[in-house]
Amino acid sequence: MLERALFYATVFFANIIQAITGFAGTVLAMPISLILVGYGVAKPVLNALGLAASIGVVCSSYKKVNLHEFTKILSIMLIGVLAGEIAADMFDITASRTLYEALGATIIAFSLMGCLSYALLKDVGLANLLPTKKNTLEVFNNGVTYVILCMAGLVHGLFVCGGPLLVVYAERKLKDKDEFRATLSACWIVLNSLIFLSDATGGYFALQTAKALLVSMAVLIAAVLIGNFVAKKLNAKAFMALTYVLMFASGISLFFK
After folding, report:
1. What is the full DSSP assignment across 127-155?
2. What local confidence, expressed as pLDDT, does residue 66 receive?
3. CB neighbours (10 Å) of residue 127?
4. Helical (H) or strand (E) element with 165
5. Under 8 Å CB-to-CB from 145, ≥6 apart: which residues?
6. Do residues 226 and 18 lie in contact, with contact meaning Cβ atoms separated by under 8 Å?
7. How far apart are the C-alpha atoms of 30 and 240, rounded to whole Å?
8. Which of 141, 170, 239, 250 lies in disulfide reach of 177, CB 3.0 to 4.6 Å?
9. Whole-prediction pTM
10. Which helix (H) or strand (E) holds 214?
11. Residue 28: its pLDDT value, please?
């Protein structure tokens, strides 16, 4: 009983963050939820909640969705998500502590890189420190972008935690905070819907899991309302600072699975 109560508290906090940033909720909730309720409940419930939260964000700011970036992100991440779903069916994810630690280390590294480029190189530009004359966007378009997006899809298919890796790309392409939130949330609607269908047909939604999802949905509504209110009060600098801090916290939390 206590474990379920703590799980719902985790869902509440994580989805406030999800509503604010458009990406971090599941990553923050997953490690704690694995301890409290296990992978078989945590993955399908958090995925469904991420889907519902994303629908809420897009409904309130659908005009801000960048259709060009939405199409690009989705087309590449779909490859990784499908690979992740196949891998999840083939291996015992609950025993893969090494995968969580590798993911945590990757997220920490990218969050530190993001903080550095945003805080120290905002005026100078990262491109001026690179050994080529290409600017940041051109560098990321030379294959690195596609690797990051594919990795984000793979991680999302396995753990529903692809958001921090996607931010590495999206932060450079989507400068407006509302466009950032709306576009990422639109991507999660499609990707999480596919995972939801896979979970439903794979038998993940047993009676206890379905009950947990219903209670969590009620908690989600309150969290999204609070998160949307807070998001409107944040300026662009505070928004990106929060994004990077949460990425770092997400990476650290994965070491305590």
Report:
1. GGGSSSS--HHHHIIIIIHHHHHHHHHHH
2. 96
3. 15
4. helix 163-173
5. 169
6. no
7. 22
8. 239
9. 0.79
10. helix 207-233
11. 80
Give one DSSP letter per residue of 96-134, joined into a string.
-HHHHHHHHHHHHHHHHHHHHHHHTSTTT-GGGGSSSS-
Q: What is the pLDDT of residue 123?
A: 44
pLDDT in tens, 93-147: 666 677 778 778 877 887 787 677 666 545 444 334 344 445 555 554 557 788 8
The 10s digit of each residue's pLDDT in 221-238 is 998 889 878 877 776 667
> Angle at CA 41, nearest 5°, toward 223 and 35?
85
d(CA 3, CA 197): 27
CA–CA dist 181, 62 (Å, integer): 10
DSSP, res 123: T
Q: What is the DSSP letter of 124?
A: T
* Opening angle at CA 251, ends 234 and 235, nearest 5: 10
| Number of residues written out for the chain | 257
